[in-house]
Design brief:
This protein has 627 residues and is of the alpha/beta class. The chain is built from 16 helices and 25 strands. It binds 2-acetamido-2-deoxy-beta-D-glucopyranose (4 copies). One 2-acetamido-2-deoxy-beta-D-glucopyranose binds next to loops.
Length: 627
């Protein structure tokens, strides 16, 4: 027997990519975007002194339920919320009910839609919420998921948290106690707070949005981890990043800037669905800020929030729960014990592990990072002295594109340097590092203000550290870009220990014992001597820099240096522009004189398609390389 044919609504053209799509925007979406504004009557809750949050008497938790036309789903969702353990906290419930869209006006259908809405309203009105205030917001027209999410919350303080649930979710009775512990540990405990964290998702992580990204693989001991992607099946939002997002969205929307992020599956959704969905906007924002979400890994497909993937606009028929609800009976570990931040791993949109916060301030700290960073025993040191911020960020996008990760940035202490380390790039704080080498090499402190001397000495000592581990080191500035990734890994003539570029500051030191011996015995003391006597160093000048000095000293000592003519494999950008036809045939890099200002360089690189930063100064693309 063949059962009655199911009638899918037209929007199901999406169904092929349904699973992934629905992961981020599952319950429904409207057929048009409306700019309905509404005054959101967020009720100020009375600050109640909370003995469990001694530092946060104003802590406020609001549940935001986004509903549409599925009474059964909504009632299951609300019942699970009401069955949770809220300790003795006051918890508010805000329910947003979207209106049906006009569609065709066949009066029978209209009556049934009206009737459906009224039954939902009747149900939520009668629904008893004894933990705090209940607020119902019934919309006058269909606004869709984007407005439902975005307009659900404007944080009224930095102590207000929103937990957003769509109507076909069901939560575990333990969910609140868990979220509360998370907030306590990762928001209110200063030693575990990170400004990069925007919230926590209770759904089981399954989706990697970066094309060609890694599979999600975690060891069984990992209960919590950080991951960039937002999860829409039970998402806790922290107030500051959300407010920041709303303002960012406002600006971009108003200026007509689209949330395109190349290399992401979600950008394809946006191109199809446009303003019916909200996640591409949020994902673009998260990418530009380098923020992260907290996720759980409870094993055996368990989670504190599950989606029933109920029949609706997206599912022709109910797909059933995506995970198993974790409750007391299946609890076989200590759920509320929170690890320190430093024990947790961080993953980007490719599910590639990133390591935020590596700021190197001493020779010892450098030693412990070198091994982790090196590839084929080679490390690229990128000097940020005098570099412009946008040119630096553009270079890092090229590193991502080319799958180059064996680099360490070094530069004077600055907001940029700290921001780069927060985003996972290893950095050497040259000021601290300089003081550290000064401490045991007794370099006269009267030179500590000369940036050039600092730069020269830091570079010399960084190479010394590398040689200590027999690692090869490249020393480059931000006045170049790599077109291909093979430059640094090519077999290099092994009869030479030192390579020096003829035109600019490319410098290579082989990790050999002869190089080490020469560097440590002869060169370092000579460099130190030279900078000690400032008369011998013509300060400042483009001609005098680290590579120039090192090469000169090596020549004086009769050390063999390989002079490399970069023009044979690179394109030079001059003040008058780039000769486009000089690209191609095996060119590996472009470079330019430091005298060309950052704006001009940006223009020239834009012309050559090598400027890959967007208007937020973040990479236009996410590029995953399967590891
Ligand atoms: C709690 O809120 C009140 C009123 O806004 C404010 O005066 C007070 O400083 C807040 N307390 C803390 C610890 O933030
Ligand atoms: C209802 O349908 C009729 C005929 O198709 C149309 O003229 C009318 O404008 C529609 N009314 C609404 C409110 O959409
Ligand atoms: C804050 O976090 C640290 C590190 O995890 C921990 O040792 C400390 O006990 C926490 N403080 C409180 C008040 O929980
Ligand atoms: C541009 O480069 C090509 C190939 O290197 C060369 O033949 C041509 O003369 C160059 N044009 C100019 C204007 O420099």
């Amino acid at each position: 027997m063949v059962g009655p044919k199911r009638h899918f609504l037209p929007l199901l053209f999406l169904s092929l990519s349904a699973f992934f799509f629905l992961f981020l925007c599952h319950s429904y979406f409207s057929s048009h975007n409306s700019n309905t504004n509404f005054i959101h009557s967020l009720q100020k809750s009375n600050p109640i002194a909370n003995p469990r949050f001694p530092n946060s008497p104003n802590f406020t938790f609001i549940i935001k339920v986004l509903a549409f036309n599925r009474l059964d789903s909504l009632s299951r969702c609300l019942r699970s919320l009401a069955a949770a353990d809220y300790l003795s906290d006051r918890i508010h419930l805000h329910i947003y009910i979207d209106h049906f869209s006009p569609g065709n006006n066949d009066s029978l259908q209209l009556d049934s839609k009206l009737d459906g809405s009224h039954r939902i309203l009747g149900f939520v009105d009668a629904f008893e919420w004894r933990f705090g205030e209940k607020l119902v917001h019934y919309r006058t027209e269909n606004v869709g998921l984007q407005a439902q999410w975005l307009e659900a919350w404007w944080p009224s303080s930095d102590d207000e948290f929103a937990f957003v649930v769509e109507d076909d979710l069901e939560v575990s009775p333990l969910y609140y106690k868990f979220l509360r512990s998370l907030i306590m540990n990762f928001y209110y405990n200063a030693s575990n707070f990170s400004p990069s964290v925007y919230g926590a998702s209770l759904q089981r992580p399954r989706f990697v949005p970066g094309k060609h990204g890694n599979k999600i693989q975690l060891d069984s001991g990992t209960r919590l981890f950080f991951y960039q992607i937002v999860g829409t099946w039970g998402q806790l939002l922290f107030p500051k990043p959300w407010k920041e997002f709303r303002l960012w969205y406002d600006k971009h929307k108003a200026k007509g800037i689209k949330p395109f992020l190349d290399g992401m599956v979600t950008t394809g959704w946006y191109k199809k669905m446009g303003e019916r969905i909200w996640t591409p906007w949020f994902i673009k924002f998260i990418h530009s800020r380098g923020y992260f979400n907290i996720y759980t890994n409870f094993l055996r497909e368990r989670a504190l929030s599950v989606s029933h993937r109920d029949a609706g606009v997206n599912y022709g028929k109910t797909a059933g729960p995506d995970s198993q609800l974790l409750d007391e009976t299946s609890l076989d570990f200590s759920l509320f014990e929170m690890p320190p931040l430093s024990n947790l791993k961080w993953y980007d949109f490719c599910f590639r592990e990133v390591h935020p916060g590596r700021v190197i301030g001493s020779v010892d700290e450098l030693g412990s990072i070198l091994y982790a960073v090196q590839k084929q025993e080679t490390i690229i040191f990128v000097s940020l002295f005098g570099a412009s911020e946008s040119v630096t960020r553009n270079m890092l996008c090229h590193f991502e594109r080319l799958n180059i990760w064996n680099y360490i940035l070094m530069g004077p202490e600055s907001d940029l340097l700290l921001d780069l380390s927060r985003r996972g790039h290893p950095v050497i704080n040259a000021d601290k590092f300089f003081n550290n080498i000064k401490a045991y090499k007794s370099i006269p402190s009267r030179y500590s203000n000369a940036e050039l001397i600092k730069e020269i000495l830091v570079k010399a000592y960084v190479i010394k550290s590398c040689l200590g581990f027999r690692y090869n080191s490249w020393m480059v500035d931000v006045n170049m870009l790599f077109i291909r990734s093979d430059l640094f890994l090519e077999t290099i003539d092994p009869t030479y220990d030192f390579y020096v570029g003829k035109n600019f500051k490319l410098f290579y030191v082989r990790g050999s014992s002869s190089a080490k011996k020469f560097w440590v015995d002869d060169l370092l003391s000579k460099i130190t001597e030279m900078v000690d006597d400032s008369r011998k160093v013509a300060l400042p000048g483009d001609g005098i820099h680290f590579v120039y000095m090192a090469a000169k000293l090596m020549e004086q000592k009769g050390v063999r240096i390989k002079r490399v003519d970069e023009t044979s494999f690179s394109v030079k950008i001059g003040a008058d522009g780039v000769n486009q036809s000089s690209f191609g045939d095996g060119k590996k890099m472009v470079f330019w004189s430091t005298e060309i200002g950052p704006n001009l360089i940006q223009m020239q690189l834009q012309e050559s398609g090598m400027w890959i930063l967007d208007s937020d100064s973040s990479c236009m693309a996410v590029v995953c390389h399967r590891s």
